[in-house]
Amino acid sequence: MSDVQAKTALITVEKLSKKYSTAVQNEWALSDVSLQINRGEMVAIRGTSGSGKTTLLNIIGGLDHQFEGEVHINGKSRSQQDERARSWARNQEIGFVFQHFSLLDHLTVLDNVMLPATLAPPKLERKRAQEIIKEPQKRALELLARVGLSDKSLVTPNELSGGQKQRVAIARALFFEPPLLLCDEPTGSLDSKTGQQIIELFQELHAEGYTVVMITHEDRVSLAARRVIELEDGKVINDYHHDLESKGGVQS
Ligand SMILES: Nc1ncnc2c1ncn2[C@@H]1O[C@H](COP(=O)(O)OP(=O)(O)OP(=O)(O)O)[C@@H](O)[C@H]1O
Ligand SMILES: [Mg+2]
Question: Looking at ligand 1, which atom is closest to the CA of residue 231?
Answer without folding.
Answer: 21
